[in-house]
Amino acid sequence: MEAQRLEIMVLSIIIPAHNEEESIVDVITGIESSLEIPHELIVVNDHSADRTAELVRVLAKKYPAIQLVSNPGKKGFAEAVKSGLSQAHNELIVFIMADSCDDTQSIKAMLKKIGEGYDVVCGSRYIKGGARIGGSRVKGFFSFLAGISMFHLTGIPTHDVVNTFKMYRKSVLDSIEMRAASFEISMELSLRAYYAGFKVTEVPTVWKERKKGKSSFNLLKLFPKYLRFYLWAIARRWELNKQRRGKG
After folding, report:
1. End-to-end CA distance of the chain
2. Domain-by-domain residue ranges, the chain?
3. What is the pLDDT of residues 60-71, one digit of tens each?
4. What is the DSSP secondary structure assignment for residue 162, as one 8-state letter?
5. pTM for this predicted structure
6. φ and ψ at 66, to 5 degrees?
7. Hey, is 180 helix, strand or coil?
8. CA 20 to 30 Å from 213, out of 55, 114, 190, 243?
């Protein structure tokens, strides 16, 4: 029955974009030329100072699925994510980065897992069939360490909790109180969904370092924010284990 329902569902793709004039055209045309699943594509202009919005407007004339919205709040990835969600009309949500790093071919595998009854499907670079190609070795090491350790310490069924490339049921996201301020929102959403009892799983995906533009991801500035949710997740698991022991 779930698989039959998916046949009539359409997907909301949300792309937060801050100063991505060098890559946004490639990302959008890649999606629109290859993705056969009915969808809307919401590009959130996150206070860009370049031609990002202008280029999206031009593409919207060619691709009717495109919707350009602006982040009316404070500049930042988390606020852009929230702005995109506020405009999404469909049951299924997938976040894609604006730098061409995510492999959109993984969307079909994500949809299959949704059809099996899962609520959150994580694109994982650190399982068989997945890969992280290029980019900073330091960032790669920390993302790998965070993903693997969260898997073992909390039991969340993904090895790549920090990856933004995930698919959610919108009802899951609507039920979560989002507190993150930046890129760590990707980690927060999956962890809060997991602890709320929603079904989480993963599919392999291949991540490739951007070829154009400049990343706004700053590991030194963001590390404390990721650490906050990392420690929260461990403490939450300890609390739940303590409650189970008490009932036993």
Report:
1. 37
2. 2-247
3. 999 999 999 999
4. T
5. 0.92
6. -80, 135
7. coil
8. 190
d(CA 63, CA 16): 18
Q: Is the pLDDT of residue 50 over 70?
A: yes
Q: How far is CA 76 from CA 19, 47, 222, 223, 231, in A?
A: 12, 9, 12, 16, 23
Instruction: State which amino acid sits at residue 43.
Output: V
- And the tokens for 180? 């993150």
Contact 159, 147 (CB under 8 A): yes
Pair of tokens at residue 128: 């068989």
Q: Which two tokens stand for residue 175?
A: 């039920």
Structure tokens at 192: 């809060």
Tokens 């073992």 identify what position? 152
Query: Are 184 and 142 contacting, i.e. CB atoms less than 8 angstroms apart?
Result: no
Look up tokens 């919205």; give the residue: 69
β-pair type (166-169, 92-95): antiparallel
**CA 131 to chain centroid:** 17
- Which is the CATH superfamily of the domain at 2-247? Spore Coat Polysaccharide Biosynthesis Protein SpsA; Chain A (3.90.550.10)
CA distances from 114 to 37, 91, 136, 187 (A): 14, 11, 32, 19
User: H helices within the chain, ranges in order?
Assistant: 2-8, 24-34, 52-62, 77-87, 107-115, 137-154, 170-174, 185-195, 219-247
Query: In a 3-state reduction of DSSP, which class is residue 79?
Result: helix
> In 3-state terms, what secondary structure has residue 58?
helix
For residue 1, pLDDT beyond 50: no
